[in-house]
Amino acid sequence: MNFDSRYQFFLLFGIFDKPARALILSTNSSNGYFGCLKCQQKGEWIEFGKGGHHIFRFDSDNIDKPLRSQENYKEDLAKKQNGILGECIFGDLSYFCPVISTNIDFMHSVCLGNYKFKI
Q1: pLDDT over threshold 90, residue 77
Q2: Which is nearest to 108 in space by CA: 22, 11, 34, 43?
């Protein structure tokens, strides 16, 4: 067995649930303004019962909401705005881009009924 070998590993993708993704990427949680890492929709707070909910309305007349790209992510990071709170802990890695290297959480999005599907 040769222990003198060197190996290089690259982080290409990160699979996180929504709370962990917000913590690791240093972004607003999904229940806050600009809580989506894939788009730049602000969302809105609506009163409900004794509290309220933060929602992101679907507007079929304006389906082309501004998507988040690597370029505008870096701009938002520099100004700490639009839901980007600070540097991602993986920010110095060469091949990891927080916007495209992370998933949309299935459990907190689909299984909890946050998305409505037409069949």
Answers
A1: yes
A2: 22
